[in-house]
Amino acid sequence: MVEIFKALSEESRLRILSLIWDGELCVCEIESCLKMTQSNASRHLSVLKRCGILNSYKNAQWTYYRVHKDFIQENKELWDYLQQKLTKLPTFISDQETYRKFKAQELCNCSKEPH
């Protein structure tokens, strides 16, 4: 539990969660939308994955991240709280808008296949 709260205590990780809370994103989408370097995004994603909040899978050279089903099931009250509070982050609206623009421009080379 300590690792979960440590992971959630960093704003960039909360912003990542606010982007992928109801779906999945390729690491390149996260980097672009949050204006992070590859190493910075990878570091934050690793922390979220290590404590069990996220899981990932690879498709060719791209890695996709999503909220781990087990985390949601095992931490239902915490997940419900996070879903309410993530929308209140000062960056939530701008991050969502950036993501919509990014998707509309089709800037990502990764080709998603449903999982």
UniProtKB/TrEMBL annotation:
It comes from Anaerocolumna cellulosilytica. The keyword Cell membrane does not apply. This is Transcriptional regulator. PROSITE patterns: HTH_ARSR_2. InterPro entries: ArsR-like_HTH (IPR011991), HTH_ArsR_DNA-bd_dom (IPR001845), HTH_MetalResp_TranReg (IPR051081), WH-like_DNA-bd_sf (IPR036388), WH_DNA-bd_sf (IPR036390). One of its GO terms (molecular function) is DNA-binding transcription factor activity. Keywords: DNA-binding, Transcription, Transcription regulation. It holds the Pfam family HTH_5. The keyword DNA-binding applies.
